[in-house]
Known about the structure:
- The chain has helices at 2-25, 46-57, and strands at residues 32-34, 37-39.
- It is mainly α.
- The longest helix has 24 residues, at 2-25.
Amino acid sequence: MARNKSSVFFFIWTYYERLIRQAMLKVIPHGIEVHDVVYSKDVINNKLIEDTVYKETGFRIQITN
């Protein structure tokens, strides 16, 4: 039973990770989605990304350098 709960949790978690990455890609120029992160060679505006993710998903994230 514990394994089934873990599998369901993992599925849900990865779904929401994907929503967050998709929101990030809306404001990251030349962003590239790789597994569970978004890469960019450009200088990014952390506050803009945090605000966009919250607006698009309802999740508050914090990006620090």
